Structures are given as C-alpha cells and as structure tokens.
Amino acid sequence: MSGGKGLAPGSRRVHNRASRALRMAAQSRWKSPSSLGAFYRRMRSTLGPAKATTATAHKLAKILDHLLQEQTSYRERGAEAYRHHEHERQLRQLRTQAQHLGFALVPQTSHDHTSRSQRRENRMQTIPQ
C-alpha cells in the first residue's frame, strides 16, 4: 500500500508503442535458440516472467540503439556462445569470491565427458564377480 492505495503487482502498464513492441519481441524469445532466448530464460528463472520480459526488452532496446547509432547490422552470437560467456562470468565471480574468503580455486585436470550411464556400465564391467 502506498498513500492508502493498493499497488499493482508485477510490472506497471506500458502505454508507449515502441516499448510494447519491444516487450512483445522479448516474450517471443522464450523458446528461441538464440543468445537473447537464453538470456530471457535465465532471467525468467531468477526474476519471474514479468521482470524477465522487461529486462529482455531493455536489452533489445540497447541493441537496437547501438545498431542505429553505429549503422551496422546485427550479428547473432547464438545460445551456445551466450552460455559459454555466462559460464566464464560465473567462474570469474567464484574466483573473486573465493579470493576474498582466503581460498584459491584449482581447476580439475581430467575432464570426463562420458555420460552417467556410460560410467555406470564401465564400473559394472570392472567389478569382479
């Protein structure tokens, strides 16, 4: 409540046509296999659908503004590139957090790319009966 009036839940109503168009474009990114789609899904999981739409519309507006200012064409990075960039950002964040706490992160030397079922089958073969 504010001033005796109840506040509307979620995002406020928008009357700007450009903003509405950006929001519609942002919502259409939900199942898109693009970097914007991956961004929308990540925001939706943490913020909820209304704020994720607003955040993605804001990102679209920044991209559109940059394209108009620089007069360049848009190059899609793809969801895999976005996930890689996000993974690197999380690693940097973990390293700095560990450093502040007095720890050091050490990467593992072996990268096991076998699936869980393959590892289980390998264990079953090596167990003497």
Which features characterize this protein?
129 residues, 61% helix, mainly alpha, 5 helices
Structure annotation, total helices: 5
Mean pLDDT: 81
What is the end-to-end distance? Answer: 70 Å
Radius of gyration, taken over Cα atoms and rounded to an integer in Å: 22 Å
* Percent strand: under 5%
The total beta strand count reads 0
User: Largest sheet at a glance?
Assistant: none
Global morphology: extended
* Percent helix: 55-70%
Residue stretches low in confidence (pLDDT < 50, at least 5 long) are: none
Give the helix/strand class.
mainly alpha
What features would you describe in this structure?
By secondary structure, this protein is mainly alpha-helical. It has helices at residues 17-27, 35-47, 49-70, 79-100, 116-126. It has a domain at 17-77. Helix 2 (35-47) runs antiparallel to helix 3. It is extended. It has 5 helices and no strands. The mean pLDDT is 81. Helices cover 61% and strands 0% of the residues. The chain starts with 16 loop residues before the first helix and ends with a helix.
